[in-house]
Amino acid sequence: MIPAGWQVATVSDICKLQNGHGFRPPDWSESGYPIIRIQNLNGSQNFNYFAGMPEQKWLVPPGQILFAWAGTKGASFGPTIWNGPTGVLNQHIFKVFPTKGVDKDWLYVALRHVTDRIEAKAHGFKATLVHVKKSDIDQHSVLLPPSASSATSPILWQHGTVPSRRSRR
């Protein structure tokens, strides 16, 4: 049952996902911008660096929501709030941009719930590894409160399932 005033939306309705760049060993340097890889979303401070002139779309400031679309179930797959230094985004990770009127904290919580649903469907030879396409994320539905600027949505907070804002689980 959908509460009065709420509506069903898709992930593509509430945010834009932008992929990182495929940095290769010839792009690496001893200094410059840290290249943000999936391992860095889990707290690793072991960075490769990019000393060239980055495209603006590659730059990731602290506080940016990121979504690893390839990773280990329960560990490296899903959303993260980047707490590291400004860096450049590697492939297999999306930068997440809330659509107008959507609160960043609320969006993070909504994406955690989408992650749980995607991970629950993972199966096959390596069910612990999750690898999806942008369209697999975009098509997931979420309940949108009357004001998505409210980070205290009761539907998302019920059953004690709301994850914290820490970088990973």
Describe this entry's structure for a reader:
The structure is a single chain. The chain is of the alpha+beta class. 21% of the residues lie in helices and 28% in strands. The chain has helices at residues 11-14, 38-41, 104-121, 134-138, 154-157, and strands at residues 7-10, 15-19, 28-29, 33-36, 48-50, 59-60, 65-68, 70-72, 78-81, 87-89, 93-98, 129-131, 141-144. The longest helix is centred in the middle third of the chain and has 18 residues, at 104-121. The two termini are 29 Å apart. The model is unreliable at 151-169 (pLDDT under 50).
From the structure above, extract its key features.
alpha+beta, 5 helices, 169 residues, 5-stranded mixed beta sheet, 13 strands, globular, disordered C terminus, 4-stranded antiparallel beta sheet
Helices and strands, in N-to-C order? Answer: EHEEEHEEEEEEEHEHEH
Please count the helical segments.
Answer: 5
Structural class: alpha+beta
Distance between the termini: 29 Å
Describe the sheet with the most strands.
5 strands, mixed
Q: Give the strand order, joined by hyphens, for the main sheet.
A: 3-5-4-10-6
Shape: globular
State the helical fraction: 10-25%
The number of distinct β-strands equals: 13
Ranges with pLDDT <50 over ≥5 residues? 151-169
Taking all Cα atoms into account, the compactness measure Rg is 16 Å
Summarize the structure.
The chain has helices at 11-14, 38-41, 104-121, 134-138, 154-157; strands spanning 7-10, 15-19, 28-29, 33-36, 48-50, 59-60, 65-68, 70-72, 78-81, 87-89, 93-98, 129-131, 141-144.
